[in-house]
Amino acid sequence: MSNISLSILQNEDAFFVKLAYRLLYVAILLSGFVLFEPAPFDLLILLTIFIILFNGFVFPIQIKWVFVIAFVHLVGNFISVLVSTRFADSYMHMIITTYMILFAIGIIIMVYNDPYKILDIIMKAYVWAALISTILAIMGYFHIGPTYDLFTLYGRAKGGFKDPNVFGPFIVPPMLYLVDRIIHSDLKKKIVPIMMISVLFLGLLLSFSRGAWGMFFFSTLFLIVTMYYTSKTNRFRVELTLYILIALTILAIGLLIAINIPAIANLLSERASLTQSYDVEEGGRFTHHVDAFKILIENPWGIGAKEFGWSHGEDVHNSYLTAFLIGGWLGGFTFLLIILSTVIVGFKYCFNQHTLRRQFVFFYAAFLGLMVEAWIIDVDHWRILYIAMGYMWGIILYQKYHPKSQNKIHSLY
After folding, report:
1. Has residue 2 been placed in a domain?
2. What is the mean pLDDT of residues 274-286?
3. Which of 91, 169, 185, 295 is the most exposed, fewest CB within 10 Å of its CB?
């Protein structure tokens, strides 16, 4: 444990620090249940951040730049509120964006001060959150009890979320975490992670979210590549290849079983195509992308939240274009800056040997997959996006300003 975390836990307000840690665990545990808003997660995470701000947590030196970029981004959103014809929608969007940024900064501060403890809390709670939401999704899909209307939408599993396309990506980071545990654990310790990931994989399949499927495939591929590259022995690479072959075999068998189950087969064949009619037809998703690009060029101050949806019948479904439409050029370019800086700076932390590398990689891999998916869906208010950025930047700043911790390298394989 770092000197910072020791000083925090030993100060006179240690009770409140421990309380904040417990609240964080409960908040993440409830993050998979957002059927209404504000969700329980929102209230608990704000209370957690309020407690840590007054109990000896040290602010990272470069957190000032996070505040500056966040402030400029919010200024762009505020200007857009002023020019919007739907003031209430734009104002509420800015309030939610402000809240999301604040809780991401809160997670950065917590991770920076006590990375090993906080990361352990987040991932343990996150795995259980994903499992609970997935079990609800499976119950709903197979009509177990009066759950169908609550936990499904359009015949697709959505768990504790309003939309299957949000539920699917939510369970990807804990799946990557479990992949890492399976690969690096002893034989006896693999059983529980295998059971857990099997449940989550079924939930991912039943979400019938093409974006979530693609995110899982892309993120897992990146995770495996980092393992190959950073491995110290060829023996591990051979073992990893064997794991991949076994996983692909099990996946093939599982899909073969799935396509022979009537409750799954029809929707699976429909959703398995890369594009749907509503993507490529005139007035479809990709046509809206072109329309949105024309609008953002002509409106440097933006047009406000939901304006595009009202004028075109549906939202643009592209997070990057949405950032420009809602926040103008100021909000759009700062959003791109945040995403690109996370991708570029975080990349080296996936391959540099440091004690938090494995904890960093599976969230970074999920973040990359999410940013690819962001081209076809609006993720700008997904809680998982801000949890991931807070998680990663907390590690980045900790490693940057605690160089001695980078020398405490031990074999991961």
Report:
1. no
2. 55
3. 185
